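Lab channel / #folding
Pinned by the channel admin:
"Please post every new chain as: sequence first, then the structure tokens as a reply. Keep commentary short and put observations after the output so the thread stays searchable."

First post following the new format, from NK:
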Amino acid sequence: MKKLFKYLGGLLLVLVLLASAFFVHVWYFKPYDINLFFGRTALQFALQSPELLSSVRVLEKFGMDGHNAELDDASMASGDEMFKNIMAAHETLKSYQDEDLDSADKMSKDVMLSLLDIVVEGERFRFHNYPVNQLFGVQNGFPSFMESTHQINNFGDAEDYVSRLNKVGIKFDQVLEGLKHRENLGILPPQFVVTKVLEEMRNFVATPAEENILFAALARKMEEAKLKQGDQQQIAEQAKSAIEQTVYPAYQRLIDYFVALDTKVSDNHGVWNLPDGEAFYALAMRFFTTTDYTPDYIHQFGLQEVERIQAEILGILETEGWDVSGGFTQSIENMTINPRFYYPDNKEGREQILDDYKTMLVDIERQMSSHFHDYPEATIDVQRIPEFKEKTSPGAYYQGPAMDGSRPGVFYANLHDIKATPKYGMKTLAYHEGIPGHHYQIAIQRELEDMPFFRKMIPFTAYSEGWALYAERVAYEMGMLPDPYDNIGRLQAELFRAVRLVVDTGIHAKRWSREQAIEYMLTHTGMAESDVVAEIERYFVMPGQALAYKVGMTKILELREKAKNTLGNKYDIRDFHRVVLNNGAVPLNILEQLVDQYIKEKS
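Reply from TO:
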């Protein structure tokens, strides 16, 4: 028996050593199998972001949760290391020969390469951005992350929450380091950015600690987790101290910097005003649209689409008995001022909006089988955008579900201005952010089997936003918008994306002013002014991103028409949707390859 145990112990040691040698080889050298490379690369980058790990929750089921006490490293040194790793991954990926790969692995290689190619090319524009702005940045991203993502299920999770509060000062100082470097490079934000982030941060620190969203979210989470009252009190006292002694002073240092910056900026220019701004915008356009379209082409396409969609809206209004002789702007304004289309401007009205969104999503989910084969397991919730950042946030946004099923997808609705939520636009917004839009697409992507992990997470804006805009059209085709005014809401949403093509290229390539862009969008959409201002200012800080929606939708519709015309009676829209959705987010040229292959197989 001793000999047997000795033999087994020796065998176990050999296996451990072999496993260790395999791990070392895979981790530090080129893996022999490209799927090991995909896994290693995804893990290496994920491990550098504890906040991402807390969001996707793939390690917790293995008992690994130390990342939940940490924040991302926002230092310039960390950025240097990240780009170094990207360059290395790029070179390794290119070394895998196409002829050695099967079709699935070749597709994954092409998907990753399409992203890494442009990131490597864009390394010289690494600092061409505004990391603290009215939409996103540590000043609102950190509280939102803690409120929406950091889970508390036990006392240790609550301790991790406080740990993160105590590390805010380090992260904010790292961000400040990057801001000062950008200033030295001549990369300064538009003036309105400075004004709005100062207002946001001043309001944040003016709130007593016990009323701050960081404290309130912690208290609510601990109560929901049913922690012992003594433990809750202990953690609450630690959190209050951290907010007052670490969080607020960190914000104040950022406030002081922006106060000084306010004397150095006075204009609201597009990125053409940055060093080599024209080349940067061209790259941003390629990144977000995954095409080589020029600013002039997109601008002209946008103008044509604006004219077409406006004519369709006017036709519906005329059919419904409205006087449209005054043209689009006057006609749409006459409709939008009608009080029948709005909820009461009070707490009850806002609660009713959220309830109605939920009902709309339940209703369409019951009808999905007519156009879709596949359904995600992840559920969706509808919540109000946190009030502390509502004023400068977009009309809505979506947050994907946790991969372990512990958190649903969330459709966040902006309820700051009740006039920005007309009843006739709500269904389309629910379909865009929820079902069959973002929630449907992202949840299916994250639940894909036999797919490299990076492809479950990788974002391609033209694909994802193109799908969500296309989903609005599909919902209409499913019969979910029988009311003509709801259809006007759908067309307004598409018109809005067409106008974006005009104003984004106008701001960054044709040197439009902020006011000129606001005026154009107001005149051509009929949107609430508060929404228009927030949108235009969004385009200033996210150049090129707004182009992705209409470009992506147009490509999906083109591919659908191609499949329909080629396949004839063999065409089934549910098959088409399966092809588009069940390969995850991909560049538009790869999406075309997938559809072409589907057509070939069905023919």
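NK: The first strand starts at residue 380 and ends at 384.
TO: also worth noting, The mean pLDDT is 93.
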